[in-house]
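Explain this one:

_____
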Amino acid sequence: MDSFEFNKIAGAVLGTLVFVMGLNFLTELVFHSEVPENPGYIIEIAEAATGDAKEEAVEVSLAALMAEADADRGQKVAKKCAACHSFDNGGANKVGPNLWDVVNKAAGAVDGFKYSAAMTEYGAEHTWSFEELDAFLANPKKHVSGTSMGFAGLKKPTDRANMLAYLRSLSDSPADLPTE
């Protein structure tokens, strides 16, 4: 390659660089933007009411919830449990125990199912009353610390009441509804 060819290539490269730098400078002049002192937007929030105007969460008793509960809706809620539990009379245990006739049964007492040590210890002193089941279904890991049940829980009290109504219906002689 002779020097004339080299000069043409070097000139093209340098010319392109000068053009790009000039275009960048021109663009900055045309589309110049100021950096604000305080970036972002200020969102004004009305002050919360104080005193009597605050709404307090009203806790409804389990008996009142159970009086309004619907076993059919509970069966729909129970679909979340069907991967690990069976609900049939004489049904096989799965990852979790069969839940037929579980209401008022001793906790951790389904024959043929190997419970965690925490559930076995809990079951020595507790039965699955409506109140116990409600608390367990709300947050299993918190209610029975160390349980191997990996379910996060049912947060809505109405869902738990419907589930309890469904579990109540899974018996040849359903338990009496709670009165208090």
